Amino acid sequence: MEGVATFAVLMHLNSINAQLTESVNTTPLSEISDEELVLQFRNGNLHSGSFLYSRYKNGIYSFCLRMLQDSEGAKDATQDTFVKMVTNIQSLHNGRAFKSWLFSVARNEVLMVVRRNKIVPMEQFDDETVVFDHSTPLKITMQNEMKEKIHTAMLRLKPAYREVYMLREIEGFSYEEIAVATGTTISAVKSKLFKSRVALNEMLAQYQ
Amino acid sequence: MNCQTTKEQISQLLDNELRAEELQPMFQHLSECEECRKFFLQTKDIHDSAKTLEYITAPKVIDQKFAVLGMEQQQSFLSRKFTISVPSAIYSIGAVIVLMLFIYVSGTIQEKQIAEQYRQTMSLTMPYGASSYDRN
């Protein structure tokens, strides 16, 4: 009986390898869509899960680190995001929405780390009255480089604004995708992006 | 159109989310308002630079954790396949036995019927029976 089971497993693994080889042979890895990878992953192809992980690990880690500004917390949030990706992939029915779904998972994990480690006061995630923290000094880590200044200024934005701004400017999300990822409305996204830009203009005015 | 609305539209323009019919009034306002022109240029500069912000490379320890997770998933997949295949195998073997029994029984019945038919045909063509024919 064990032989039958082993045979069934081997047959399944062979079919996975065949599918994978076929898709890799016909399409370069970078061109396989998230939707296709999610479909294969849902059908038990663990390699597709690895591809998705490789594709998004730096993006998710950057998002978590820039939100938390704590490397240990960012590691935990990133790991937990991918644990959720693996365990909850069956609940994702629309593979095309994978990216915004994954970032919404990451956002929840960031909030979990905040609750657990009390890195940032929780109310700041919902606080929409103040766009950035005036009391924190603006530290320029690399001199005379606009990018570094923007990065530093972006970290001064309040989390509710920072997450929206990062998803738009770094990840290139549409307003709708940001709304899905952050659990808010499109008009709120528009408003937060506008206020973030006004705040960044204000912070960076002296360097322009 | 006031400055507040124009600035909001500039933000949407940079995101390619501004409707076509809103473009003309916005540019009209920009041509007349120095403050909004300044806002546009500054916001666009920051927007262009922000787009070039790189990802921060994830530490290797996360890869290791994911590899362990992958192995656990494979283990659970293997055990899942095993528990599923045992009853399936029992059902399959049972079905094969039933099928073989059916073929055997129906084959036996058919054999008897053919033998009977042969006997009847022989008795019609040889009214005195095969034994008297053999004697001649």
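qc> Chain B touches chain A through 38 residues (CB under 8 Å).
qc> done
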